[in-house]
């Protein structure tokens, strides 16, 4: 009987464990005790020295950090209420953000302005683990679309306050930013122009092409297959293929050079991004129009609507959620692909990424990469919310 009782107790204990929490806890423990919390360099390009958490700050601060992380891990490990899991994950991320700043202040020598202190693998892995736990809690809460956008705004404000407070001023990524502040915002504007400009051009061209494919089935396969072939060309290869023809246009077509058309720079970058954007926009337009209920079309036809009226007043509004899903795919894709424009002088945050790679300066790479990740993440959340809102509106419209 005692063996059976012990087995039952073990079963109940296992049942109380959260499956994702076990994975998050294992990752967090590995990072906390086996990975460096900070990296110290005598200057920005030499090899880094690993600094474990207990050496990265005063001992009492290290103890506070370890105890806080262990408490958060324990709460996430078991099946705790969703609100508690969300609060613990946010608190853990906040503590990490503050403590890595303290590590920079503690490790930065006062007599060496060239030294660099960077967050180590422990910080990034712990941040990843608790971000997964936070995202899981948000999904379990099933937050409505506007609440998700509000959550994103609060997170952006919190990050802004952290940077404004000076808590990270001793970290090397902020030193890289201070050296390139004007260039950072200039390249950020270029990155946005590349991503959103190519998206706008793809929508202006792709939605009419999608409508054509839907209305004329015999051209659908040809157009979609051609765009599929274009999509299979590697991004760097496509950027390279565009250099020669655009250079010829810039030299030989009157007024082209004045418009900025050349073999390298902004023009080939935005043309390549436009080309990659067409397939998702066209295919989702076709899929959206295909998904319009036949009853809605018949009702519109019975009301005496013309083909144009049916398209703009019935079919496109009902297809809009699917079309918007394609736009979401394109925007997130283009924010990432725009990094490669830095290779051909197109500007954007890729400029910092490739400069950092060439100089073996990891923090310069991060200065370009982190804003891109943040922009893509924000775009995905906002457009996911807009897709959900449009789906709700479309359902109400189809019932009406």
From TrEMBL:
Domain ABC transmembrane type-1: 188-383
Pfam families: BPD_transp_1 (PF00528)
Keywords assigned by UniProt, alphabetized: Membrane, Transmembrane, Transmembrane helix, Transport
Gene Ontology biological process terms in this record: glycine betaine transport; transmembrane transport
A GO cellular component entry from the record: plasma membrane
Membrane topology: Multi-pass membrane protein
Entry keyword annotation includes Transmembrane helix: yes
Keyword Transmembrane helix: yes
InterPro entries listed in its UniProt record: ABC_transp_perm/SBD, MetI-like, MetI-like_sf
Source organism superkingdom: Bacteria
Subcellular location: Cell membrane
Transmembrane segments: 20-39, 59-78, 90-108, 120-139, 146-167, 194-214, 226-249, 261-279, 318-344, 364-387
Family to which this protein belongs: Belongs to the binding-protein-dependent transport system permease family.
Record's protein name: ABC transporter permease
Species assigned in the record: Martelella lutilitoris
């Amino acid at each position: 009987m005692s063996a059976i009782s012990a087995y039952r107790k073990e079963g109940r204990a296992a049942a109380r464990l959260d499956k994702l929490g076990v994975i998050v806890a294992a990752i967090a423990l590995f990072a906390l005790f086996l990975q460096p919390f900070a990296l110290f360099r005598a200057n920005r390009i030499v090899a880094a020295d690993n600094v474990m958490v207990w050496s990265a700050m005063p001992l009492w601060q290290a103890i506070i950090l370890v105890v806080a992380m262990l408490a958060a891990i324990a709460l996430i490990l078991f099946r705790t209420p969703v609100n508690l899991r969300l609060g613990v994950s946010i608190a853990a991320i906040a503590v990490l953000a503050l403590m890595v700043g303290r590590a920079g202040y503690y490790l930065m020598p006062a007599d060496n302005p060239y030294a660099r202190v960077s967050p180590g693998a422990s910080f990034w892995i712990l941040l990843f683990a608790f971000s997964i736990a936070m995202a899981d809690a948000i999904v379990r809460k099933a937050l409505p679309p506007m609440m998700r956008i509000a959550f994103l705004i609060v997170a952006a404000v919190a990050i802004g306050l952290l940077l404004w407070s000076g808590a990270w001023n001793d970290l090397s990524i902020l030193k890289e930013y201070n050296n390139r502040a004007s260039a950072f915002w200039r390249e950020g504007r270029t990155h946005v122009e590349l991503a959103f400009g190519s998206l706008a051009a793809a929508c202006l061209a792709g939605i009419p092409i999608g409508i054509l494919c839907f209305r004329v089935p015999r051209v659908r396969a040809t157009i979609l297959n051609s765009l599929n072939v274009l999509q299979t060309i590697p991004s760097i290869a496509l950027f390279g293929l565009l250099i020669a023809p655009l250079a010829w246009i810039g030299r030989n077509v009157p007024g082209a050079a004045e418009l900025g058309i050349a073999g390298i720079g902004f023009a080939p970058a935005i043309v390549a991004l436009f080309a990659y954007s067409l397939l998702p926009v066209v295919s989702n337009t076709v899929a959206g129009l295909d998904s319009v209920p036949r009853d809605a079309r018949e009702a519109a036809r019975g009301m005496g609507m013309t083909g144009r009226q049916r398209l703009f007043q019935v079919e496109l509004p009902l297809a809009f959620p699917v079309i918007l899903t394609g736009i979401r795919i394109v925007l997130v894709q283009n924010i990432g692909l725009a990094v490669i424009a830095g290779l051909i002088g197109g500007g954007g945050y890729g400029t910092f990424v490739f400069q950092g790679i060439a100089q073996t300066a990891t923090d310069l790479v991060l200065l370009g990469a982190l804003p891109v990740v943040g922009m893509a993440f924000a775009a995905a959340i906002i457009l996911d919310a807009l897709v959900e809102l449009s789906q709700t509106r479309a359902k109400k419209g189809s019932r009406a």
